[in-house]
């Protein structure tokens, strides 16, 4: 944990959020212009300006994982390659079973599309779902929040070891077993979002 960038946690703690926590506590707050967690600073980066092996010291790092916010874009070309979207997509559900977001999986290829060579670098891209109330929800302070659903994504990048793309994109049973219970304030916050989320529409 001592090598992590942009993280201010007590010794022994590691930044290891679930998919639901990434969408609820970070991407949602970013899109609603609300303050994020005080001890966690996820930076804004333009993925097109950095190859994945250059993320160390620029993105929030936790072990071998790199986290950052980026603008929604279909152009994911860098100076040495491009991110190719894989045919893998997972719905992110709230504890009430409502669709909060989607997770896309991409692999970094060196060279020019579509003839690039796949590398071991994988990116998970988290998108928010649109709201059934036209994007109007309430943030933690109880203020009405207009969400930029189609503006921000949260990215998690790492270099995979071995052939485990399916694990990277969809998670494992161990990951699900390690999910902790939400605190009462979190449950109330999540309940507010659950009441307003549309179950079908996502960006993009």
UniProtKB/TrEMBL annotation:
PROSITE patterns: NAC
UniProt-recorded Gene Ontology molecular function terms: DNA binding
Keywords: DNA-binding, Nucleus, Transcription, Transcription regulation
One protein family per Pfam: NAM
UniProt KW ATP-binding keyword: no
Record-annotated NAC domain positions: 9-160
Keyword Translocase on entry: no
A Gene Ontology BP annotation from the UniProt entry: system development
InterPro entries for this protein: NAC-dom, NAC_dom_sf
Protein name listed in UniProt: NAC transcription factor 25
The species this protein was found in: Morella rubra
Lineage: Eukaryota, Viridiplantae, Streptophyta, Embryophyta, Tracheophyta
